[in-house]
Design brief:
By secondary structure, the protein is mainly alpha-helical. It is built from one helix and two strands; from the N terminus they run ββα. The chain has one domain (5-84). It is 58% helix and 7% strand. Bound molecules: zinc ion (ZN).
Length: 85
């Protein structure tokens, strides 16, 4: 997992490169007050949600393409039978 998680502000994404990991609470340059452990947990949670939602979106897109292809082929079959009839 991301080694920068404890140093990344979960609110704005700013990375505190100078953060000493013995510090329990810190404030990011945009003024967000952060508990080191809680903040790291939130950063990891956000990353996880991003991955999950990205995967779900991909699957939904795939299904959409598949079902519209089915409709298209059904339509072209109807056209063919009209042409033959
Ligand atoms: Zn921040």
């Amino acid at each position: 997992m991301d080694m920068n998680s404890p140093k990344t502000c979960n609110v704005c994404g700013w990375i505190n490169q100078d953060l000493n990991l013995s510090v329990r609470e810190w404030t990011c340059k945009n003024g967000h007050k952060l508990d080191r452990d809680l903040n790291a947990a939130k950063v990891i949670l956000k990353e996880g949600l991003k991955i999950i939602s990205g995967g779900t979106l991909d699957n939904t897109d795939g299904d959409g393409v598949r079902s519209s292809n089915t409709q298209l082929s059904a339509k072209s079959e109807a056209h063919l039978s009209l042409a033959n009839g």
